[in-house]
Design a protein that fits this description.
The structure is a single chain. By secondary structure, this protein is α/β, with parallel strands linked by helices. The protein has helices at residues 3-17, 24-39, 43-58, 74-78, 86-89, 93-96, 116-126, 194-199, 207-219, 233-241, 255-262, 267-276, 285-294, 304-310, 320-329, 335-347, 351-368, 373-376, 390-393, and strands spanning 108-112, 131-137, 149-151, 154-166, 176-179, 182-187, 200-206. Strands 1, 2, 3, 4, 5, 6 and 7 form a seven-stranded mixed β-sheet that branches. The longest helix is centred in the C-terminal third of the chain and has 18 residues, at 351-368.
């Protein structure tokens, strides 16, 4: 069986085990993702991650639901790398792997602290023809409490989560060393080492997963995180009361007043607050609270698609996925092109490049939407987005669409 055939079988077996409805939308999405994965020569990467997940599940390790853009892949969901169905949550594959960008896949998984070594050793047994090493890097600073790896008279440190796995060739012998019976691949430049681009697998150890495991062992599998409903009204009452001690990422005492005024009633509401409660966006939380409790005025009656897209976030532009969706549906960019614009606007300071994107956007809106010109092209200095989202999108989308 070819590697692509093996990956396809794993994916559809996984879809069946998750009782995923194999309708036209699902088939189209899986076919598209597989075509991109094959085009970018990433098949081996997914096969190895599938093996890692198989080991984790075999050992009944509690893992988080997924990290970052990896949740935008239906392939990842079917392989159980992530536990979030992107089709149900409006997540885009292009944010994870864009066919217009020659980049390698980057997936992170979380497992309980103290389990990485066990997973790696089992992986070595499962993949005897592969070359598998822990990663050692030059420390950024001296730490007297750290046990350094002395390699070629230099003090390296073991990378906290990265593992190097390659099947095509053994790394340069000068970059491999054994320290206390453990083989390490050592690198002096994490961002400029070609091997790390396609052979680094990130297996993070998190103590909070150990705590959740302990809780489950005490109160029973009925309350295992994988079995808990996401619409339990008692949970949202708990957040409303601000009783958030030991609740991961919501422990700040400042959130007590936020939740009391915001009154969350869905898992989506909790995600919004989690995205907003950080330097920059948090100063606009009062706008969010007002929009949720009092409603927000639809400023785009000429094209109701905009209101529909922004409805989940109460009229505000909060998520980068929302920007991609707006560029796609309102201005006619493909999802890949929309993601490219997102990437450029995050990084660029070139006003000429921004102006070119703006021109294409305006032309796209006129051709693909019913928005009126005064909405597409701002004519005064009123803030275009009622929220400072610089840490997420650097405010550059202000140049494109008047959202408020």
């Amino acid at each position: 069986m070819t590697k692509i055939a093996s990956l396809r079988k794993l994916i559809f077996d996984g879809a069946k085990s998750k009782s995923l409805e194999i309708d036209d939308q699902t088939l189209d999405r899986l076919s598209y993702e597989l075509a991109v994965i094959e085009k970018l020569n990433q098949i081996e990467y997914f096969l190895i991650y599938a093996k890692i997940i198989e080991i984790c599940n075999g050992e009944r390790l509690l893992r988080s639901y997924g990290r970052g853009s990896a949740c935008g892949s239906l392939v990842n969901y079917c392989l159980d790398i992530t536990k979030i169905n992107p089709l149900k949550n409006g997540l885009f594959f292009e944010r994870f792997l864009n066919p217009l960008v020659s980049t390698y896949v980057d997936i992170d998984i979380d497992i309980p602290a103290g389990c990485q070594e066990m997973v790696v050793e089992k992986l070595k047994a499962e993949l005897p023809t592969h070359f598998i090493y822990y990663l050692a890097t030059l420390p950024s600073a001296i730490n007297q409490n750290r046990k350094d790896l002395i390699i070629n008279n230099l003090a390296y440190k073991k990378h906290a989560w990265a593992v190097i796995i390659t099947s095509d060739q053994r790394p340069d012998p000068d970059s491999v060393a054994t320290f206390e019976n453990t083989e390490y691949y050592y690198s002096q430049a994490l961002k400029n080492d070609p091997l790390l681009d396609h052979s680094k697998y990130d297996i993070l150890e998190l103590n909070y997963l150990n705590k959740l495991d302990l809780i489950v062992s005490k109160i029973g599998q009925k309350y295992h995180p994988y079995n808990l409903p996401l619409n339990d009204k008692k949970v949202f009452e708990l957040f409303k009361k601000g009783d958030l001690a030991n609740v991961f990422q919501f422990e700040s005492s400042s959130l007590k007043r936020v939740f009391a005024e915001f009154i969350p009633n869905s898992i989506e509401d909790l995600c919004i607050i989690n995205a907003m409660f950080r330097p920059g966006p948090m100063v606009n939380i009062p706008v969010l609270i007002h929009s949720k409790q009092k409603g927000y005025r639809n400023r785009f009656p000429s094209d109701l698609r905009v209101k529909k897209i922004l409805n989940e976030t109460y009229g505000l532009l909060i998520y980068q996925e929302t920007s991609i969706q707006l560029l796609n549906e309102i201005s006619g960019f493909s999802l890949s092109e929309a993601d490219m614009i997102r990437r450029k606007l995050i990084k660029t300071k070139d006003q000429d490049e921004i102006a070119q994107i703006k021109t294409k956007f305006i032309l796209g809106c006129k051709a693909n939407s019913t928005l009126k010109d005064q909405v597409i092209i701002p004519v005064h200095t009123e803030p275009l987005i009622p929220i400072d989202i610089e840490p997420l999108f650097r405010m550059k989308l202000n140049h494109l669409l008047k959202l408020y």
